[in-house]
Amino acid sequence: MLQKSLDDFAVTYELNVYSDDPQAMPQLYTALHQNILDVFNEQGVQIMTPAYQGDPDQPKVVPRDQWFAAPARNPATLTTGAKTAAPPTQPGLSPF
User: Please, which residues have CB within 8 angstroms of residue 11's CB and are 6 or more apart in sequence?
Assistant: First the structure.
């Protein structure tokens, strides 16, 4: 994890990862982004856009027990053909 810059309204980080399966990169990026959002959400940290107008009175996070409220579906329970959807943690994803 590199801290690339400390800007006026945000910190810019760069996360470098490696996969030995380049065909899986779209799914790996999806799982990586989901995990980042989930961990920030679990810790009560809001990811805001730089153009927001003001801080809300209460954090805008989703409690874990509501992550898959309708119409959302838990990706771990979805199936596509013979394969199940990727779990939140990808075994082929590793930092370098």
Answer: 3, 5
- For 49-73, the DSSP string reads -TT--S--SS-----GGGTT-TT--
- CB half-sphere exposure, 31, CA atoms < 13 A: 19
Place of tokens 């590793």: 94
What residue spans define the domains of the chain? 2-50+59-95
Distance CA 17, CA 32 (A): 10
Give the C-alpha separation, 38 to 45, whole Å. 10
pLDDT values of the chain reduced to their tens digit, one per residue, 96 residues: 899 999 887 788 898 888 899 999 999 989 988 888 888 888 888 777 666 667 677 777 778 888 878 777 777 776 654 443 444 444 444 443
Cα separation, 75 vs 68, in Å, equals 9
Count of Cβ atoms closer than 10 Å to residue 31 Cβ: 20
The identity of residue 35, as a single letter, is N
